[in-house]
């Protein structure tokens, strides 16, 4: 009996110690989930969003506005900015499952889909994400090669005094970009390098600002705004081409606003209280406003400068503008940005494939074994044969596809159309409905579904226009022989 009482007293004592311990969410160092305390604010979140949004998509906005005109272009851009803001607000409410203050945290977009939707929708979301990332890698390869060619051609033109037409093939530059990516892809956790996001932000603002500044300078020099209310006129192109190009422009603008897949990750950096969703909504409003103003300026001044002849890549359209080194800096900034961005985006595919192959073949030395390779003046490098072969093959595949389809504008349109509806609209809407337990056929449910269906229709026509653009380009294109 005494022994039993002793056990009971011991059990009670242990229980009391547990309940008296300070909870982790009251800790100065740890959050409610035991991880290190987050320190993000509305301003850091806004900066992350702006850095993520403003990228190579800005280069095609002048062309997009040229297809839609002074009325349609800005109107469509405002439409996409509003939809992006609204669906981002819905998505921010899905950061925690259940209670917005104390519910379980979802650390990634896929975590939120898994937690709130589950089942086949998780696999569908994953497939769309990975295909989109692969397409982005192709698009970045094309864009980087175009910028490298622009630098080479600009310098060639000035060295020859304008006598040499300087026709250049894109293939060597795609190969150079591909070889660079093969080397960088072997660096473990490349996306975790602390200074990478700083470099990306500086580079993206550099080339975007140069494009904007050159547009303003050109308009100021000529004293006139080119363009028309309805965009490129029929006659310069056929009525069918006008239709397809207008649709493709929707995809280009959609691509410029694609950042939903990383919104949850950004929200996971925000400290609480207050609830992360409240801070995130403020950050989204600030960042989308700044981004839209910047996009409007870049797109509109680009269109005002070139009119119907607005190029698909803004910085290649200024020709041999003097001082030409300004354009060289802008194009070099694009290349540097895209070299890093390619790796950051591709890390998700790398991790997914490598994790699943390790689980599938845990005994395979080819997949799992790492060899120590001595590196002078540094720590030894862990070489994994599967990682070497698989990542190299991935980069080669994206490079070959880029060489086969080197159509920057068309690829951007396809990517924008493919990713906009499912990732920016459909999944956020469905997760929000599940999170808030919105009744089917209620007014709010119907409105959300109407928004989703409208955006699906926009994605379909944008995709059709972009595919039509590819087919038109293929009529005059000779594989591996494109020159600029």
UniProtKB/TrEMBL annotation:
- The Amino acid transporter transmembrane domain extends over 38-471
Pfam families per UniProt: Aa_trans
Localization in the cell = Cell membrane; Endomembrane system
**Entry keyword set:** Amino-acid transport, Auxin signaling pathway, Cell membrane, Membrane, Symport, Transmembrane, Transmembrane helix, Transport
List GO terms (cellular component aspect): endomembrane system; plasma membrane
Q: Please classify the protein's predominant subcellular localization into one broad category.
A: membrane
* Membrane topology type: Multi-pass membrane protein
Q: Which GO terms describe its biological process?
A: amino acid transport; auxin-activated signaling pathway
Q: Where are the transmembrane segments?
A: 45-65, 71-91, 130-151, 193-217, 286-304, 324-345, 388-408, 414-433, 445-472
Q: Which domain of life is it from?
A: Eukaryota
One GO MF term:
symporter activity
Its biological function? Carrier protein involved in proton-driven auxin influx. Mediates the formation of auxin gradient from developing leaves (site of auxin biosynthesis) to tips by contributing to the loading of auxin in vascular tissues and facilitating acropetal (base to tip) auxin transport within inner tissues of the root apex, and basipetal (tip to base) auxin transport within outer tissues of the root apex. May be involved in lateral roots and nodules formation.
| Family statement | Belongs to the amino acid/polyamine transporter 2 family. Amino acid/auxin permease (AAAP) (TC 2.A.18.1) subfamily. Belongs to the amino acid/polyamine transporter 2 family. Amino acid/auxin permease (AAAP) (TC 2.A.18.2) subfamily.
- Name of the featured protein: Amino acid transporter transmembrane domain-containing protein
């Amino acid at each position: 009996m005494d022994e039993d009482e002793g056990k009971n007293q011991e059990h009670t004592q242990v229980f009391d110690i547990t309940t008296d311990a300070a909870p982790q969410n009251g800790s100065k160092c740890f959050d409610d989930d035991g991880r290190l305390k987050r320190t993000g604010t509305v301003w850091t979140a806004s900066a992350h969003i702006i850095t993520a949004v403003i990228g190579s998509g800005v280069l095609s906005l002048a062309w997009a506005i040229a297809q839609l005109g002074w009325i349609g272009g800005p109107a469509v851009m405002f439409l996409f900015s509003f939809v992006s803001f609204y669906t981002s607000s819905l998505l921010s409410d899905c950061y925690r499952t259940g209670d917005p203050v104390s519910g379980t945290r979802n650390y990634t977009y896929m975590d939120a889909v898994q937690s709130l939707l589950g089942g086949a929708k998780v696999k569908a979301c994953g497939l769309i994400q990975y295909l989109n990332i692969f397409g982005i890698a192709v698009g970045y390869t094309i864009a980087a090669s175009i910028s490298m060619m622009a630098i080479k051609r600009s310098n060639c033109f000035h060295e020859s005094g304008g006598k040499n037409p300087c026709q250049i093939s894109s293939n060597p530059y795609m190969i150079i970009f591909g070889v660079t990516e093969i080397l960088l892809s072997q660096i473990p956790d490349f996306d975790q390098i602390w200074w990478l996001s700083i470099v990306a932000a500086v580079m993206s603002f550099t080339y975007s600002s140069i494009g904007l500044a050159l547009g303003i300078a050109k308009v100021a020099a000529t004293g006139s705004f080119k363009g028309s209310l309805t965009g490129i006129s029929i006659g310069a192109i056929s009525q069918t081409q006008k239709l397809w190009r207008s649709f493709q422009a929707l995809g280009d603008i959609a691509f410029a606003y694609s950042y939903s897949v990383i919104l949850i990750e950004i929200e996971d950096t925000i400290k609480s209280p207050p609830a992360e969703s409240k801070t995130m909504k403020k950050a989204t409003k600030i960042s989308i406003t700044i981004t839209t103003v910047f996009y409007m300026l870049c797109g509109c001044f680009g269109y005002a400068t070139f009119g119907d002849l607005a190029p698909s890549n803004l910085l290649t359209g200024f020709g041999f503008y003097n001082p030409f080194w300004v354009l060289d800096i802008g194009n070099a900034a694009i290349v540097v940005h895209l070299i890093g961005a390619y790796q950051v985006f591709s890390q998700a595919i790398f991790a997914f494939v490598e994790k699943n192959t390790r689980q599938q073949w845990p005994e395979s030395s080819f997949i799992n074994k790492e060899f120590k390779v001595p590196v002078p003046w540094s720590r030894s490098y862990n070489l994994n044969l599967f990682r070497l072969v698989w990542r190299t093959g991935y980069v080669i595949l994206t490079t070959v596809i880029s060489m086969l389809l080197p159509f920057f504008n068309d690829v951007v349109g396809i990517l924008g159309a493919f990713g906009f509806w499912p990732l920016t609209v459909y999944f956020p809407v469905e997760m929000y409905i599940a999170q808030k337990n919105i009744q089917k056929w209620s007014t709010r449910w119907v409105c959300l579904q109407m928004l989703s269906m409208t955006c699906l229709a926009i994605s379909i026509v944008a995709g059709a226009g972009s595919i039509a653009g590819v087919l038109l380009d293929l009529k005059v294109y000779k594989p591996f022989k494109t020159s600029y």
